[in-house]
Amino acid sequence: MNGNQIIPTYTLNLEGEPCPYPVVYSLDVLEKLASGEILEIIADCPQSFQAVPEEAKRMGYVLLCEPVQEGPIIRFYILKP
Amino acid sequence: MLSSITSLYHKLFDKFWNPVLVTVIAGVLSALYFGVTQTYWAVTGEFTRLAGHIMSWFGFDPHQLSYMKIIKFQGSPLDRVDGWVVSGMLLGALMSALLGGNFKLRFPHQKRRIVQGLVGGMIAGFGARLAMGCNLASFFTGIPQFSFHAWLFMLGMATGSYVGVKAALHPLLRGKPRLEKASPGARNMQSSRSRVQPIIGLLVFCISIGLIVWEISGGHSKLGLAGLFGVAFGLLIQRGQICFTSAFRDLWVTGRGTMAKALALGIIAATLCTAVIIYLGVPQKIAWAGPGALIGGLLFGFGIVIAGGCETGWMYRAMEGQIQFVIVGIGNIIGAGILAWGWDHWGLFASLVKPYPKINLVSELGWSGAILSTVGLMLLWYAFASYWEKHVRYKANQKGQAVLMQANVEMKEIS
């Protein structure tokens, strides 16, 4: 999917949240989404840059594009299939 | 020339580094550091000395405390090897965060995180000093010293972090994330980075090198070299996001074993290199192997999970501008100071530490026995992490949930 066409359903803003909360929150929210919904995750805890996509992919969710990094902030777009 | 420098810069600072590579390099460097300074890479001893300075501002003479004698409390941080390594680490982490454009002042949205940071930091600082070191001196650099107390500390830390995860996911602490309906429209998908931060990072680099050169040319080569190693350690832990806390915590939360496996390999590298240095004649550092190390590990493991980061973790995160971790650091210093006080006044030394032997695995098992058992322990831990990764995920799958320890966040916005 072309990244520019992504229109997320929900935004989970995790700015300022330290580990382990970004991963736990993200997986919890993804679990409750309906199929086909897209979650936008905004995080700034560098540890979550690796852990969030890794754990989301493992659970069968789809990372729609490369994470978008704006300096210290990162955005992920994850689809619940 | 210029283009090759910029391409090297992008290669090094656009992404975080592979944790296995970083821990192995850190392991080798920590052994070299031991060879050069004859003391191991450690930070909490220096935090305790900082607590000593604070006590003297309030009119209490810290020299009366026997703990301060054990850790050779004298002079100022700039007269001490540990002081230079801690300052170097802070500078190195700051430089690295700036060069990578990762600096940002971050305040926790949930006020409870501040309390968590302070209390968790205090518990961790207290526990670390009860065991004579945090997950550096009693773990990452303690296990390679062949001191059995580090094994007890590791066992305590693994157990303590498990309890810590349970507490961190308790409704009182976990709080609620901010989930909102997404604002409409497509998103800008261009990654961007700060142009100013790398320049300030370069400035921090020049200042650090200047200080080190000045100290070495002033005849204090050991202190200068400690500073240089500190800068390298700071760079490594920030670039690799080396969070010792996550080595255990992630296993208990989602079953992620990435950091646990990386650390096991890093400690093996450190063990082999440290063995050579000890064999060449640098004396080992052996601490009391008793309940002090075990209970200290338990408290430490619990504290670091509540706080969100251990001693090395808060150092680089504070330098990335995460305010919560500045508070964790303050907590650490307070906790270490309380332990130094309680060592005499509450009889902690007499009851939990002194009656127990200092067990040196080299004199107990011989060189081959010491090396084989230490490397064996790390391989066992590596195998455990791999097994646990699969086990947790299998169990969670069977229950039809993402992770074994669920936070069960309520989401009114969705339902």
Automatic annotation (TrEMBL), chain A:
Superkingdom classification of source: Bacteria
InterPro entries linked: TusA-like, TusA-like_sf
PROSITE patterns for this protein: UPF0033 (PS01148)
Pfam families: TusA
Family, similarity comment: Belongs to the sulfur carrier protein TusA family.
Protein name: Uncharacterized protein
The organism of origin for this protein: Aneurinibacillus soli
